[in-house]
Amino acid sequence: AQANPELALELFHKFGLVKLGTLSAPSGNAKLGAEVIKISGTTNANLPISETVKYGEVTFVEPNQDEPVTLDMKVKKLKSEKRQITLIPEDGPLIIDARGRPAANSCPSFIPDEYKPVTRKFEISEEQKIYSGEIKIHRELAIPGEVLVGEGDMVSPETIIAKSVRAFLRPFFLSIAERIDIPPRDLPSYFHKKIGDEVEKNEILAKHKVDLVRTKTFRSPVFGIVEKILPSGAVIVREKPENVRKLYHVQVANELYIKSNRIKAYLTCKVGDEVENSQTLAILGKPPHQRKSISPIRGVVKGIDPEDGIVIIEPLLEELELIAWMPGKVEKTTERGCILANRGTVIQGVWGNDKQVYGELARDNIGPGKIVAKDTVNSDDLERMRDANITGLIAGGLHLKDYHDLKLSFAIMITESFGKNEFDPKIKEILTANDGRLVSLDTHTQLRAGVQRPRIIIPETE
User: Which residue stretches of 53-103 are H helix?
Assistant: First the structure.
């Protein structure tokens, strides 16, 4: 959030909000108590659904089934563009707001006393929490690179597995469904690209014919490759990889048709500037007789040569380096890394702060580089650990407010839940028995598709 507040806010709206339901709120006015909306339909089990809503009411319609169901909606005296609504179970119930717009009629509470929102399964069974036996992990770069280990090698956590260099490629979040005014679930009907497809700048990616006159169109703002299609109706497009050279020599003088020693007067960049792909480096004249020299890549201006009339650009590169993280034996190598094997114990948690570290497990000894295991922690404990420069913390529970208030940078995994919670007795026993041993801690947490929970690995072989 500190590095990119706008992206952090966008990710929060896409991934941090829970859907309460699908809202239908016709506009207009009617007599209070008059019947204005009728909902009808049939479940997949051929059970009838029927609901009449009076003006001034807010009502829930919940089919209580595991498959999508389409309902017909008849509206009298109010205005509504929707005549059919498809309910998807994970999206929650249908909420009918018949107070008109603006909602001038009061409604004391539209949540029934017996209503309980759908909750996510949060508990982890004892079998999932603790595992002992053979452990295999994939340690791979995102792209092919130079693999520095071979099959059969024994590695320690700090061993470098692979290295690579790639052009820095930015992700772009394209809110296509929102921009063309369609429900996120309908995006596949309008967006016909698939993951891995290339898109061109200004290419039409989706169209929605709103009515006989209006059509909403979404054009790509960037050259790129479709990387992911999100449930929110947004699409992630990654910039295209550029042909990586050490340096690019842009023939500015030739492109402007001027003598080499005159280019400085027309340059729009200087040494050290970052430039975008297709950004203007120099410009001569005014439209319509204007001539330009543009950058062929995204990079940094490394030099300006007035003798040859060129601008030298170095591509922006991202150096990738991957360490083993867990000690073990290299079982198999790939073009991007390897598979590591060991034996030991894995303990899963319920929440973590998305870091990956290794170090010495400490039950009582709080010090630099330690991964501390403590039943429950308060703000004073966390402040003391931060000042001691620990590497990681495993706790039964903590207060989320303390974590945010103190802006902690070390890795954190909790095994039970937020609040004052002590370790499960079996987890406490294992952590106490392995005090002082080398452990690997991964606090990445993902609760949507491809569920991933934080974990600590206690390897047998260090």
Answer: none
Q: What is the pLDDT of residue 243?
A: 46
- Token readout for 64 is 């209580």
Question: What DSSP line would sit under 18-59, residue for residue?
Answer: PP--EEE--BS---TT-EEEEEEEE-TT--EEEEEEETT-EE
DSSP class of 15: H
**What pLDDT, on a 0 to 100 scale, did the predictor assign at position 449?**
46
* Cβ-based burial of 260 (10 A; exposed 0-12, middle 13-18, buried ≥19): middle
| Residues paired with residue 392 on neighbouring β-strands, in sequence order | 371, 411
Other beta carbons less than 10 A from residue 165's beta carbon: 14
313 residue type, one letter = I
Torsions phi, psi for 9 (to 5 deg): -65, -40
Taking phi over 0 as left and psi of -120 to 50 as alpha, with beta for the rest, 413 belongs to: beta
Distance CA 58, CA 346 (A): 49
**48 prior amide bond cis, ω within 30:** no
Contacts of residue 1, defined as CB under 8 A and 6 or more positions apart, other chains included, come to 8
Sign of CA dihedral 239, 245, 251, 252: positive
Measure the CA–CA gap between 367 and 389, rounded to whole angstroms: 7
Residue located via tokens 């910039």: 239
Judging by beta carbons within 10 Å of its beta carbon (0-12, 13-18, 19+), is residue 155 exposed, middle or buried?
buried
The overall pTM is greater than 0.70: no
pLDDT beneath 70: ranges in the chain: 1-7, 10-11, 13-15, 18, 63-66, 81-82, 90, 101-127, 167-168, 241-246, 447-451
Angle at 426 between CA 424 and CA 429, to 5 degrees: 110
Of the candidates 317, 313, 314, the one whose C-alpha atom is nearest the C-alpha of residue 293 is 313
Q: Residue 406 in contact with residue 383, Cβ under 8 Å?
A: yes
The whole-number pLDDT of residue 298 equals 83
The size of the chain, in residues, is 462
Q: Which residues pair with 52 in a beta bridge?
A: 38
DSSP string for residues in 161-213? EEEEEEE---EEEE-HHHHTT--GGGHHHH----TT-EE-TT-EEEEEE-SSS
Look at residue 119 in the predicted model and tell me its pLDDT.
46
Structure tokens at 40: 């009808």
